[in-house]
Amino acid sequence: MRIRIPRRVALAVGALALLGATTAPGVAMATDDGSSSTSASPKPTVVLVHGAWADSSSWSPVMERLRKDGYPVRAIANPLQGLTSDTAYVSSYLSTIKGPVVLVGHSYGGAVITNSAASDPDVKALVYIAGFIPAKGETVGELAAQSSPAIPLVSTAVPGGTDVSIDPAHFREAFAGDVDRTTAADLAAVQRPANTRAVTDASVQEAFRTIPSWSLITRQDHAIAPNLQRFMSKRAGAHIEEVNASHAVMISRPGTVTQVIEDAARSTR
């Protein structure tokens, strides 16, 4: 026997079917204010790219907040082997993610997202957290030399180049001045060295020319001078926010970092 379904019921079933293609039935999605509700518009995936002398775990306080607010989050282990190869790695990683992406870069990670986002149409917003934003043809080293303070570094010869890390005795003052001493000592101990090609490879893309961008400037930064951050951010046409924080702002001020990322994410809808 054939049963006739009223049109309004059929439309409702169809809507649920579409929702089920992206969100399992009955799964609660967090709203922008952190409350729980069913959402028909999945939030973009936030992809976090760390910079030199850090690792993906440095995003942990930010990831916790983003997940609480219902955002899918990925934190990439940036190889730190040079802008050209790091860009290729992140571009390849982005190709595995379905749907819209908010791409976030801290410090040197900003240079990486500037280049890798250009190859992925799913990247809908760029967020620079105390980040380098190089123009085409520039190197991170050239930008840093303009106004950034000198950082005490330790060099290690490796096959095919040189790796550098921050002298642990000066890590807190250079990188994490507003982080407690114990946490700063832990960060210094687990820091990942960066190959010098990270600062000598020239940037070849300017993704910020076509993708909306946000920039959080850290006023107490001793790794990338605030004035240099402002110059790059204004040149990129970014939405600019500022905070009294050190370079390790994702650890010392994770709420502010999360807010800037979510502002960018809301713009993708």
From TrEMBL:
Q: What residue stretch is flagged as signal peptide?
A: 1-30
Q: Name one GO molecular function term.
A: hydrolase activity
Q: Where in this chain does the record put each AB hydrolase-1 domain? A: 46-257
Tell me the superkingdom of the source: Bacteria
Gene3D superfamilies attached to this UniProt entry:
alpha/beta hydrolase
Please verify whether the record's keywords include Transmembrane: no
The UniProt keyword set, sorted, is: Hydrolase, Signal
The name this protein goes by in its record: Alpha/beta hydrolase
Q: From which source organism is this entry?
A: Actinacidiphila oryziradicis
